[in-house]
Amino acid sequence: MPERALWQRLARGLAFVAVLLWSGAPIALVLLASLKPSREIFEFPPRLIFSPTWENYVGLWERWPAFFEGLVNSLIISAGATALTVVAATSAAYVYSRYRNPLLASSAFFMIVVRMLPPIIITLPLFPLVNALGLNDTHFVLIVLYATFFVSLNTWIMKAFVDQVPREIDESGTMDGAGLFHVLTRLVVPLAMHGVIATTIFVFIFSWNEYLFALIFTTVNTKTAPLVISEMLGALDGVEWGVLFAGTMVQLVPVLVFVMALQRYVVSGLTLGAIKG
To answer: H helices of the chain, where?
Structure first.
């Protein structure tokens, strides 16, 4: 038995190292490249010991101010889309969890079908409509599109957490005079908070990194950071790889900090769901 436990621990350790290398190695390579002079980035074999320089980050600040404007746009759009999606998905999840009828079943099937469609099929026909309404190149259109595209999946994520909240809590709140809104916001949501946080992380990461919708529905005023990074790759005077890697790292850091700050809540929520299941 001890020998078996030792082998299990060893296997888990090797699996952890493999996942860490798979996920962390690309980030480490980008970080190292962003700190190297341009002439050393593509040396082979690559040098792991070198004198780091901040010239690529200075070049990013001086020659690509549009990138930092894109970061602000990404933050506004991601925050708005996340808030709208969480509110809509949580409300819908409560309805699907607590009520049963043929209309709800049909709408659930419709949401799944729409979510399976490739985004390009939906976005291209929408472009003339968005343009006619004067919403092109605005934060609003991307916020609504991101929320619409991901509300279906996140509704089912939230439903799994709302299902774990006993119906007796709703009934006790109703008996005490609480309305539906107060039951949802003051009783159900606090108990399903881990699902809310998981949904928040999921939508924020998607919105922060999304490229296709931003490419089609923005031109000048609301370019996001991924769009500006793509412009760096297509620069007429050549690609400054060091500056490009610096921009990639700057664009990655907010998401890493955000996920790491909320990770323990997601892990504890998944553990809680596993125990209750």
So the answer is: 2-34, 55-63, 65-98, 102-116, 119-132, 139-162, 167-175, 180-182, 189-191, 193-209, 212-217, 225-233, 241-276
